[in-house]
Amino acid sequence: MEKETKPIRIAIMGAGTVGGGVYKLLQMRKNDMYQRVGTDIEIAKILVKSIPETRKDVDASLLTENFEDIMNDDSIQLVVEVMGGIEPARTFILRCLNSGKSVVSANKDLIAVHGRELLDAAEANGVDFMFEASCAGGIPIIRPLKQCLIANEITEIMGIVNGTTNYILTKMDQEGMEFEEALAKATELGYAEADPTADVEGLDAGRKMAIMGSIGFHSRITFDDVYTEGITHITSKDIKYAKDMDCVIKLLGIARNTDSGVEVRVHPTLISKEHPLASVNDVFNAVFVHGDAVDDTMFYGRGAGEMPTASAVVGDVLEVARNIKSNCLGMFGCSCYRELPIKQIGDIESKYFMRMVVRDCAGVLGNVASILGNNHVSIEKIIQKPAGCDTAEIVAITDVVQEKNFKAAMQTLNDMSFVQEISSMIRVYA
Asked: Does the pTM exceed 0.90?
């Protein structure tokens, strides 16, 4: 095929794991680019913190430490941001958009907080801002929500969106590890960062749920709106009792559009072994989307890693390149035309798993049931086992109840002399 167009020149900001993957994948597809996109893609600059003396995997002539080298090059039409963090990424992206350069980003931290600002800047300047890689690595989810499922009223987006915590919970479930042992294994294999806080406390998943909820429900949700709870308190005993009740424990992100408002939350959750998510193990992710026309859809795959994430980034790059070639930039801006209220965590309704140690004497179980009933909490399943000298362990799953009522019941029980310890309170997917 005779080439009639000039190549589209791009810059990459960041040369870490994802940036390296983007560079590698673009080089792998270089010979097929014209046939796939209708134009060639040419890397003009790669912004790094410092230029190493030797780097065999990247053309050294492309490296720069100066962002202004990108801004001052009018031939660069598209910038890929894979730096991470809020600043200077936000400032750099805004300057690119305001100068007429389209941007592709994988920065969930930034988009979950400043997504509207960036999308508005792109729209104002007639360019594209795309961020498929921000939510589930190589799993396509942003574009399906924005385009493929746009005919639906989306009522729920739910799933496993953090591979590190899923790996940890898988090891706890399948090998009987405690949390700290499973975390150490995840760190050893490179699945967990040296500081795993963002993963194990649910913050990473919370940012992804804010992004997906905003798009799915057409109403702005920021990270501050998301209730987050991590897995550090989950024990092997919780895992075992969940099995006894034909459930597994997963860190779920749940976003629901209800008649009384939007609820967006991340927390450990018991889910039935019969649910498809129960078999999503190790570092894999999966997202369920429920639409009124399509019913249930499931997106499954690797949610992180060099090449899976690069796959999503480069997919956006090629989409923007097509738009540049066709002169149809700025078609998909911010879709948040609603202003839906955000529900507080106390107002959500759920089933609950609870585990407590009580004195093993007559009337205790009846007292527990009475306190639960007085707070409008009814029991679906209950197990009582000896826990030690003169103590027993009560494990129960409630019916659906408003969270503030359940918490009130737990507070009352915690103040009772016959209750030695409330060991666990975990929500159950219903």
From this structure: yes
